[in-house]
């Protein structure tokens, strides 16, 4: 087990008290809130040197309520406080790796999921080199580096025992439910209005899609936590049951169709793993999508589904929204189809390396089909393809898309093997919970591109990292 302390902590208390008092004095004189943030930044930097494992738990704790801020005339952005904490985690790993190049065990490098993530990262570098928008692609690459370090690499040094899995759940569920209750209360004050969910979310999440994805990914984890609480006190079980049940109406009231489908798909994956059928799901899924693409592209069949502007519009309530979705009269669905067609046509121009990470917006409009254009096609928010497979294809080329497709299949394949290899009920339950969380994330990302956001991406990559750790534990049971 890795030591979590880097230097001696005797200096911490007097220095922190002095700095705290000084910053309070400066705030009183200047009124600048950065003066109040300085002691917390100092505290976290000091905590990493004293006990970096605790600092990692604090990072997980801060993710749910971290918010996006812009600076330099809104040309750059970051999420605080979690992204600066990721920068420090990257620095921490650099120090640990420099002091011990073998800090990552050999079994970790040999895992197929690690190999796929490594290949994805290497191809990302190639795509950045050939990017048509080099600056924004380099920023994308840098963000990916500290993201993967924090949520894919460092967990192998953190999650050693069962208590670490429990701690991760606790430090995540408390702030997450805090944001859920705040948003739920705001939405209640707005009468749970379909069109005002974004106002209720406000700055806590990017939008209702980001928020609903987190809820749908965390729902199976909450259910597994309740199942594992059989021997806990009644009030602990009651709280966990309330959390699991409350996440269902909370997800519904986001009015996000993908999140609802994601919960159903996660349940299907859980059942399929138990009965050893999960290996069939992704080949069938990929096969159906391929057949659909062939059917729609043959003789330009997709033209028949262009929107009727007299009947295609935004809706004021969720019931009309769902009915319009099935009738092909929903504005957001038509806009999504507009982007998908553009992405598919755009991929033929740069099939191998794409246009570069984060560069879709600057090049897709010449490839659009005007008959699918809607009044929201101005795309003022600079959103992308609304499908992660196409997102990989148009920005990083076919190798990136294929690697992502393989990653999803291998994840479920390995999850099933690990689940049935375990005899320990705790690790069996954790394995299936992680697989269901990943499954919910996968479905949401089929209709969006959220893996680069700090909240969804952290859960997605953490689920892969934990499965790698569980795979090792299933082969070498550790008596506890």
From TrEMBL:
<dbReference type="Pfam" id="PF04932">
    <property type="entry name" value="Wzy_C"/>
</dbReference>
<dbReference type="InterPro" id="IPR051533">
    <property type="entry name" value="WaaL-like"/>
</dbReference>
<keyword id="KW-0472">Membrane</keyword>
<dbReference type="InterPro" id="IPR007016">
    <property type="entry name" value="O-antigen_ligase-rel_domated"/>
</dbReference>
<feature type="transmembrane region" description="Helical">
    <location>
        <begin position="113"/>
        <end position="130"/>
    </location>
</feature>
<protein>
    <recommendedName>
        <fullName>O-antigen ligase-related domain-containing protein</fullName>
    </recommendedName>
</protein>
<feature type="domain" description="O-antigen ligase-related">
    <location>
        <begin position="243"/>
        <end position="404"/>
    </location>
</feature>
<feature type="transmembrane region" description="Helical">
    <location>
        <begin position="397"/>
        <end position="414"/>
    </location>
</feature>
<feature type="transmembrane region" description="Helical">
    <location>
        <begin position="208"/>
        <end position="227"/>
    </location>
</feature>
<dbReference type="GO" id="GO:0016020">
    <property type="term" value="C:membrane"/>
</dbReference>
<keyword id="KW-0812">Transmembrane</keyword>
<feature type="transmembrane region" description="Helical">
    <location>
        <begin position="426"/>
        <end position="447"/>
    </location>
</feature>
<feature type="transmembrane region" description="Helical">
    <location>
        <begin position="136"/>
        <end position="159"/>
    </location>
</feature>
<feature type="transmembrane region" description="Helical">
    <location>
        <begin position="234"/>
        <end position="252"/>
    </location>
</feature>
<keyword id="KW-1133">Transmembrane helix</keyword>
<feature type="transmembrane region" description="Helical">
    <location>
        <begin position="54"/>
        <end position="72"/>
    </location>
</feature>
<feature type="transmembrane region" description="Helical">
    <location>
        <begin position="258"/>
        <end position="275"/>
    </location>
</feature>
<feature type="transmembrane region" description="Helical">
    <location>
        <begin position="84"/>
        <end position="101"/>
    </location>
</feature>
<feature type="transmembrane region" description="Helical">
    <location>
        <begin position="19"/>
        <end position="47"/>
    </location>
</feature>
<feature type="transmembrane region" description="Helical">
    <location>
        <begin position="168"/>
        <end position="188"/>
    </location>
</feature>
<feature type="transmembrane region" description="Helical">
    <location>
        <begin position="280"/>
        <end position="297"/>
    </location>
</feature>
């Amino acid at each position: 087990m890795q030591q979590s302390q880097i230097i001696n902590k005797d200096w911490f208390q007097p220095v922190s008290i002095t700095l705290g008092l000084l910053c309070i004095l400066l705030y009183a004189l200047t009124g600048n809130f950065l003066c109040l943030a300085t002691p917390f930044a100092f505290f976290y930097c000091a905590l990493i040197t004293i006990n970096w494992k605790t600092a990692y738990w604090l990072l997980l704790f801060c993710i749910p309520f971290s918010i996006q801020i812009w600076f330099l005339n809104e040309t750059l952005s970051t999420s605080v406080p979690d992204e600066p904490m990721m920068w420090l985690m990257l620095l921490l790993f650099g120090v640990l790796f420099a002091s011990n190049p073998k800090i990552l065990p050999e079994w970790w490098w040999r895992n197929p999921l690690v190999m796929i993530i490594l290949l994805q990262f290497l191809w990302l570098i190639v795509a950045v080199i050939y990017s048509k928008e080099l600056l924004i692609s380099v920023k994308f690459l840098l963000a990916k580096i500290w993201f993967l370090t924090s949520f894919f690499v460092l967990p192998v040094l953190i999650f050693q025992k069962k208590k670490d899995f429990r701690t991760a759940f606790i430090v995540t569920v408390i702030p997450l439910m805090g944001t859920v209750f705040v948003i739920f209360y705001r939405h209640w004050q707005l009468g749970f209005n379909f069109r005002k969910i974004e106002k209720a979310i406000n700055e806590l999440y990017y939008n209702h899609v980001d928020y609903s994805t987190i809820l749908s990914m965390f729902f199976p984890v909450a259910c597994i936590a309740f199942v594992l609480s059989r021997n806990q006190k009644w009030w602990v079980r009651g709280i966990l049951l309330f959390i699991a049940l409350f996440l269902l109406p909370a997800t519904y009231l986001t009015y996000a169709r993908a999140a609802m489908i994601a919960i159903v798909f996660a349940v299907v994956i859980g059942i399929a793993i138990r009965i050893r059928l999960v290996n069939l799901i992704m080949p069938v899924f990929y096969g159906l999508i391929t057949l659909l693409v062939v059917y729609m592209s043959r003789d330009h069949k997709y033209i028949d589904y262009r929107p009727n502007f007299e009947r295609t519009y935004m809706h004021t309530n969720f019931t009309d929204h769902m009915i319009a979705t099935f009738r092909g009269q929903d504005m957001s669905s038509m806009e999504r189809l507009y982007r998908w067609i553009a992405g598919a046509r755009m991929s033929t121009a740069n099939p191998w390396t794409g246009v570069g990470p984060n560069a879709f917006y600057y090049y897709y409009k010449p490839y659009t089909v005007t008959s699918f254009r809607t009044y929201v096609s101005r795309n003022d928010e600079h959103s992308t393809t609304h499908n992660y497979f196409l997102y990989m294809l148009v920005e990083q080329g076919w190798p990136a898309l294929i690697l992502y497709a393989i990653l999803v299949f291998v994840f479920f394949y390995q999850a099933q093997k690990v689940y049935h290899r375990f005899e320990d009920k705790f690790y069996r339950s954790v394995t299936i919970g992680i697989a269901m969380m990943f499954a919910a994330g996968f479905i949401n990302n089929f209709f969006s591109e959220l893996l680069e956001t700090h909240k969804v991406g952290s859960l997605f990559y953490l689920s892969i990292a934990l499965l790698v750790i569980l795979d090792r534990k299933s082969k070498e049971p550790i008596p506890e």
